Model the fold of this input.
Amino acid sequence: AGDAERFGAVYREYKQAGFQVDAESLQDTSHVKDMTYQSVGFLLMLMLFSATNLSDIILKEKENRTFLRLLSSPVSAKTYVLANVVVNGMILFVQVVVMLVCLKYVFGVDSGVPFGELLATLLLFAAAAIGLSLLIVAFAKNSKGAGALQNLIVTPTCLLSGCFFPAEIMPETVRKIANFLPQHWALDMISKLQTGHAFGGLY
Done:
């Protein structure tokens, strides 16, 4: 406010104020994150193929007429499909756990995400994979048709969603298409967890 003496006093105090700087070297972990992204991308594709192959058993049993024999017993169609879903879920769970353990302890790759959070993310995707596999089985007339639909859906969607290479390098139009695919959301969630987002905030 035009007070030169007051300004001088404030300036002298500012010049005399000490501050401390601590320097630390940080390790570059970007290559580890890239390896995790790539590994999880291939795992998502394998999970989709596994889920579809297990659900395809329903069609094979229909072709062999085993399905009709099962329905003549006290087992209902809903119970039969639910049993397939449960077995499918168990096998995908084992697949995910084995992959994560191998990634950490065999290959020495630290994903930068707690084991529980990474497992929960992949199990959410497993539910989506089982749902998609049942959808393929519902629309296919036989096991060969299911195999063709599987190849027609799984590989292109994995390609578009960034399972093979980062989605950032793809054109904007392709990235908009990827927003409709569960693989994209699983990879996006893992990427955000690696950058420090809280698991509860990514619902």
